[in-house]
């Protein structure tokens, strides 16, 4: 039986939660996590703003842009609110360096942060309003993703642009002052636009479709403010988003502890600039190198064991042709980590991925499914040319909830992402007001630093 006929008003419950959420309802640690997430997003978007895709999108919209309502991150140019949300979101996802939910493949911040950052500037909103909208949107998007996983992912949909469209809609709608009825209509319009295929992994199409989710969320909220209506059960209805995107789902679980348990507390931040399942393998390579002295020239063969469900066509491109494909090549991530003792932006540049000297090592590394391993775990056994064999195991890679990045780690990541930017010193000045964003009277003033 579909959830609408069972009397579960999922869309209405989400709408009322988003509209009614008050500052006093949010624990201090959740507010702090929101600041961490926004800082991580903005730093990654700064770095991503230099990617070729973003230049192409800017050329498209420079000729057709609307009102200068919000700044494009890393640029002096301002665009209309929907365009800013789109391009900033694409920049925030272009490097696949943005945060990820601990329990399923969902980049929780990029769509909702892009929506609140652009809408907040347009409205000259204060920091508290922006943070509350961000938390509300993050929670709704992640709860939908949780209810539909793993089925939606197995069906080939990318969680971030699909579920993230609802996150962006709720966040923008909250800032625009929608009431619960209008928010329901906005969610209905979001359901009409939520899309994104995993076939696009390893290409510009992946950040493009994620960027569109932020844009579509802002559009849905703006349309609802103008009185545009839609189905009010477009998530849970018999022909709703859940039924169309997943063979199995449990939307009632999405409402568990709504308003008292926040999904943002399940957020993880990436230390490495690639697909999340590779991170445990990268740490395994670091362990082989740092603890056992394994270097590429000593390797005969390496076998990495990974959990079921983490190795498929979208995460293991064996012969990557460019940096984007390298981010989804488990063998490249392992090979470059063992060779460079690093897995930052430089390791996924086109030039590094295309370095022919890495090819023999990539071909000497095999990834296999180990059903005894859980999400985030990895084993690696290396057979060396001198006959020696060494093995390592990683249970909690760096960035995992059990091995999290600290505030100082996130500042270091922000600084590294902003390195080389034309206005580097100005970007560095943004850190203090971002850590105290709840005291900001107008986030447009903070945005001007980025």
From TrEMBL:
Protein family: Belongs to the PrpD family.
Any one Pfam family match given in the protein's UniProt record, by short name: MmgE_PrpD_C
Chain coiled-coil ranges: none
Organism whose genome encodes this protein: Paraburkholderia susongensis
Molecular function GO terms recorded: lyase activity
Domain MmgE/PrpD N-terminal residue range list: 14-251
Protein name: 2-methylcitrate dehydratase PrpD
Segments forming domain MmgE/PrpD C-terminal: 272-431
């Amino acid at each position: 039986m579909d959830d609408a006929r069972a009397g579960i008003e999922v869309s209405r419950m989400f709408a009322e939660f988003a509209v009614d959420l008050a500052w006093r309802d949010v624990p201090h640690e959740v507010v702090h996590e929101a600041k961490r997430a926004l800082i991580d997003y903005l730093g990654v978007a700064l770095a991503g703003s230099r990617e070729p895709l973003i230049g192409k999108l800017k050329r498209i919209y420079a000729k057709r842009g609307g009102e200068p309502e919000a700044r494009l991150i890393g640029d002096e140019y301002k665009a209309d609110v929907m365009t800013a949300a789109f391009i900033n979101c694409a920049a925030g996802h272009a490097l696949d360096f943005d945060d990820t939910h601990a329990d399923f493949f969902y980049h929780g911040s990029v769509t909702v942060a892009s929506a609140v950052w652009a809408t907040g500037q347009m409205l000259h909103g204060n920091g508290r309003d922006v943070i509350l909208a961000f938390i509300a949107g993050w929670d709704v998007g992640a709860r939908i993703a949780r209810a539909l996983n793993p089925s939606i992912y197995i069906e080939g949909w990318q969680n971030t642009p699909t579920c993230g469209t609802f996150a962006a809609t709720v966040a923008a709608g909250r800032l625009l002052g929608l009431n619960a009825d209008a928010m329901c209509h906005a969610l209905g319009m979001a359901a009409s636009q939520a899309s994104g295929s995993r076939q696009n992994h390893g290409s510009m199409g992946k950040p493009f479709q994620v960027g569109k989710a932020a844009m579509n969320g802002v559009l849905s909220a703006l349309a609802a403010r103008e009185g545009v209506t839609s189905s009010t059960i477009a998530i849970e209805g018999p022909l709703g988003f859940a039924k169309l995107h997943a063979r199995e789902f449990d939307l009632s679980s999405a409402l568990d502890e709504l308003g008292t348990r926040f999904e943002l507390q399940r957020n993880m931040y990436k230390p490495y600039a690639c697909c999340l399942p590779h991170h445990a393998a990268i740490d395994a390579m670091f362990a082989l190198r740092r603890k056992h002295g394994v270097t590429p020239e000593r390797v005969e063969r390496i076998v990495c064991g990974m959990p079921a469900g983490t190795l498929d066509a979208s995460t293991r491109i064996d012969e990557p042709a460019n940096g984007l494909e390298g981010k989804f090549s488990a063998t490249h991530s392992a090979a470059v980590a063992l060779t460079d003792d690093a897995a930052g932006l430089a390791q996924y540049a086109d030039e590094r991925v295309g370095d022919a000297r890495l090819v023999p090592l990539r071909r000497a590394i095999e990834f296999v499914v180990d059903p005894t391993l859980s999400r985030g775990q990895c084993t690696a056994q290396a057979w060396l040319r001198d006959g020696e064999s060494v093995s390592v195991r990683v249970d909690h890679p760096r960035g995992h909830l059990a091995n999290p990045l600290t505030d100082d780690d996130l500042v270091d990541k922000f600084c590294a992402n902003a390195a080389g930017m034309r206005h580097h010193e100005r970007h560095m000045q943004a850190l203090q007001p971002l850590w105290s964003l709840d005291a900001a009277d107008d986030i447009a003033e903070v945005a001007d630093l980025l």
